[in-house]
Design a protein that fits this description.
Layout: H1 12-21, H2 24-54, H3 56-65, E1 66-70, E2 81-85, E3 93-95, E4 102-104, E5 109-111, E6 114-116, H4 117-123, H5 146-152, H6 156-174
Antiparallel strand pairs: 1-2, 3-6, 4-5
Helix pairs in contact: 2-3, 2-5, 2-6
Length: about 180
């Protein structure tokens, strides 16, 4: 998702000094867990929306395989997470069965059209063979991620801040 949370923490120098007092490993752990705690409500809401809005077997599959993952590439001093569907689940991929479709070799080289079902559910889609640039959507969108993000995004910085303050107090108490 392209949405990001940028926040300004009051008394940030005091927070940074408290984090610097810990070992580098502990301060990174505190920030990582804080970001995870801030995005956990998004994951829970998205799973609930998938079951309610999409429903049926596909809604349950979406909720089952939805997960919270760290960004693969991160810059030094930054940490980010995203809610995504676990990769490699064959139940979410559909291939067109036209004459141009073929799977060959050990590495399964695929030619033909490949459709990712969660995207089609989130954004809507045209029936196979009728789509194209500017084609009307035959099947309406049943968004489950976007409404969850819209509801949980405003509260995420506050959750992160509360977790950060709590974790700093907890780490100081251990000393």
């Amino acid at each position: 998702m392209a949405d990001m949370i940028k926040m300004q923490i009051k008394n940030a120098q005091a927070v940074q000094n408290a984090l610097n007092a810990f070992e580098k490993k502990i301060s990174k752990k505190v920030v990582r867990q804080g970001v995870r705690a801030a995005w956990k409500p998004l994951l829970d809401r998205a799973k609930a929306n998938a079951k309610a809005n999409v429903g049926g077997e596909m809604g349950n599959l979406l909720a089952k395989y939805m997960t919270l993952r760290a960004f693969r590439r991160q810059k030094k001093g930054q940490y980010g997470m995203l809610v995504r569907i676990k990769p490699g689940i064959d139940k979410f991929v559909q291939y067109s069965m036209g004459s141009a479709f073929s799977i060959t070799g050990k590495r399964k080289q695929i030619s033909g059209s490949r459709y990712y079902i969660p995207s089609a559910i989130e954004y809507g889609h045209a029936f196979p063979g009728r789509g194209g640039k500017g084609a009307p959507k035959d099947v309406a969108a049943m968004p489950f991620m976007r409404p969850a993000l819209d509801v949980t995004l405003p509260g995420a910085p506050k959750i992160f801040e509360r977790y950060l303050v709590h974790a700093i107090h907890e780490e100081n108490a251990k000393r």
